[in-house]
Amino acid sequence: MSLKPIADIGEFGLIEKIAAICAPTIKPASGVVEGIGDDCAVYEHSPSSVQVATTDILAEHQHFDLLTTPPHHLGSKAISVNVSDICAMNALPRYALISIAMPQNTPVEMVESLYNGMAHAAKLYGTALVGGDTSSSAAGIVISVTLIGETSKENLALRSGASPGDLICVTGALGGAAAGLKVLLREKRIMMDHVQNGEPYNRDIMNNLEEYTEAIQHQLLPSARVDIIEFFHKHQIVPTSMIDISDGLSSDLRHICQQSMVGARIEEGRIPILSQARHIADEFQEDALDYALGGGEDYQLLFTLKPDNFQAIVEHRDITVIGKITPKEEGMTLNDIYGMQIDMKEIRGFDHFT
Amino acid sequence: MSLKPIADIGEFGLIEKIAAICAPTIKPASGVVEGIGDDCAVYEHSPSSVQVATTDILAEHQHFDLLTTPPHHLGSKAISVNVSDICAMNALPRYALISIAMPQNTPVEMVESLYNGMAHAAKLYGTALVGGDTSSSAAGIVISVTLIGETSKENLALRSGASPGDLICVTGALGGAAAGLKVLLREKRIMMDHVQNGEPYNRDIMNNLEEYTEAIQHQLLPSARVDIIEFFHKHQIVPTSMIDISDGLSSDLRHICQQSMVGARIEEGRIPILSQARHIADEFQEDALDYALGGGEDYQLLFTLKPDNFQAIVEHRDITVIGKITPKEEGMTLNDIYGMQIDMKEIRGFDHFT
C-alpha cells in the first residue's frame, strides 16, 4: 500500500478530510451552531447567547524559536492569537485552558516566565486561566491553548455572511509581523554564524534593533483587537462576516469569499501598511505589500459591513475600508496603484504542510 | 545564574507554581467556581448549571508509541481519557476540540484513522467534535484534546468534599491497563531485537496475544464511565468527592485526601483487580496489587459517598466499596490481607517529570 504524505494535500485539504470525519458527531448533538471551518466552534449557551471556542497548537521550531523569542513574550502571544480568534466571531473572551508538553530538563524559571506572560495577557483581555495539563515531551516544547468566549446570538459574526455590495474593512496596519520576523531571523543568522565560527561572546556583533522596535513588537507581542469588539458592541455594529488575519490578507479574504460564496475587489492604495514594514522591506529589497498580503501573523481583524454602517466606523482612526464584496463570478481582484487588476488567486498565504 | 530543571520539583511542584501564577486572572473573573487543581475547571453556565472543561496533551514517545498503538485506538483513547475527567466531576460530556501537530511526512491515511477513532468514541459518549487546529511539528505527533461538559450545580462533585465516615468506592476492576502495557512493551522488545538482528519479517515471532486481550484492551481502549454518571443522575446519587484513576489508586486517593483534608483506610482484600492482570503479574513475577495502586491509566472512577447512599449502590455489580474516609491525623493506610497496616504515603504514582 502506498501512503500519501500530508504535504501532498496541504493544510486545507487535511482540514476538509477531518471535517468530513467529524460531521457525524455534530449532527446528533443539540445546540451546535457552527462546527469546523470558522475561527471558532459555536454552540448554544442560553436562549439568547452562544459560546465560541477555539484552540491553537504551537510547536517549538515551527511556530516559535526560543533563540529569538523571550518566553514571557511567547506566553503573551499564545494567549493573544487565541483571543484574536474569539474576537473574529464578534465575541469576548472568558476562559482559557493551557496544555504544555516539554522536555524534563526545561528550566523551571523558563516555564514561570512563559506562564507570567500568559497571565499578563489574560488579565489585559479579562480572561481567566482556569485549567490545563502539563506533560513531558521527547523533543521541544509544545503549547496548546483553548479559549472559550461568549456573545449574543444577534452579535455573532461568521465567515459566511458577506454579500455583494458590503464594504471590506481592516483594522490597524498590516505587514509589521512579517517584517519583524525578517529582522529577527537575520539577527539569529548573524548570531549562529558567530557561534559556529567559535568566536567569543561579544555583545557588539548584535545590531542595534531600536529602529525596528515596532515591527518586532508586532511579531513578538501582537495584540488581539478586543477594543474593536467593544467598539462594535457599544455602537451596535454587527459585521456581516469577520476573520482575523493570521495567514495574510489574501488568504484570509479568500476564506471569507469561499464561505460567503462571493467575490471581492481590493484597492492596493487603501491597504494600510505599517510604515516601518516599508522601511524593512526596502532594506531587504522586497515589497511590503507582499508582507501584508501573504505574510500573516498580524492578528488584525478583516470584516465586511453593510454600507449603511459606514457612518458608524468612518470616524474610527483604526478601521480602514479597503474594498467591496462583489458577485462570485467576478473573483477576487486587487486594483493596483497603476490601475491594473491583479487576480488574487495567485497570491498564496501560509500553509503548515506545503 | 543557575537554572533548576523541572525534574527537580516534579509535576505537582510545577502545577503548584503555575496555579499561583494563574490565580490573579481568576479572581476578577465572574463565575469561576473551581480553577486549577481538580479534574476539570468549573464555571457558571446558568443560574442552575455549571460547565466543566478539561484538556490533555499526548506526546508521541511519552504517552503513546505508534509501534504498539494502532492510530484508530489512539484516537479513541484520546477522547476517552478526557471524557473520563468530565465524568469525574459527575458531569456529562458535550463538545470537544482537537489540536494536532505532526511532521509533514505523516501519512494522510494515518491521520484519517486517528480521527475516525476519535469520531467513533465521541459518538459513543454523545460528544460533538466541533473544532480544532492542525499544524506541523519538527519531531513526533502531539495531540491535545479539550472537552467541555455540563452538570447541574447540585450534582457537581469536586475532589474536596470527602469527610470522615464516607465510604470509598471504585468502579470496575483495576490493574488491567498496567498489565496490558507490560505485555505490549515485551512484544515491542521482541520485535525490535528481531529487526536489529536483521532477521527477515516473520509473523511467527509474534506471540499469540489472545490470552492477554482483556488487559491489552484496558491499555489501548479504555472506556470512560459515562454509564456510571448516568446511573448516579438517575438515582440522584451525588458523590461527596470524585476523581478518575489516571495515575494509580494510591496517587489519586491521595489527591482526594489532600484536597478534602482527610485520611483514608483501604482494605487490600476489597480492591477489585482484573483477573487477567493477576495472571500477567504472575508471568512477570510481579504483584498485581502494585499495578492497581501505582500503575495508572485504568480510567475507572474513585469516589466517596455518604454511608446512607450505601443501599443505592450495593446492587450495582460494577461498584465496590473498598474502604472509609478517616480523620486527617490517621493518614492514608492500607490494611493488607494479613491484617498489617501499610502507610500509603510510600506508594508513588506516575509523575511525568521525575
TrEMBL record, chains A, B:
In UniProt terms, what function does this protein have? Catalyzes the ATP-dependent phosphorylation of thiamine-monophosphate (TMP) to form thiamine-pyrophosphate (TPP), the active form of vitamin B1.
Q: What is the gene name? A: thiL
Question: Does the UniProt entry include the keyword Metal-binding?
Answer: yes
Q: Where does Mg(2+) 1 bind?
A: T55, D56, D133
Ranges for domain PurM-like C-terminal: 236-330
Which residues bind ATP per the record? Y115, G132, D133, R159, S246
What species is given as this protein's source?
Answer: Prosthecochloris aestuarii (strain DSM 271 / SK 413)
- Record domain PurM-like N-terminal: where: 37-150
Name of the protein this chain belongs to? Thiamine-monophosphate kinase
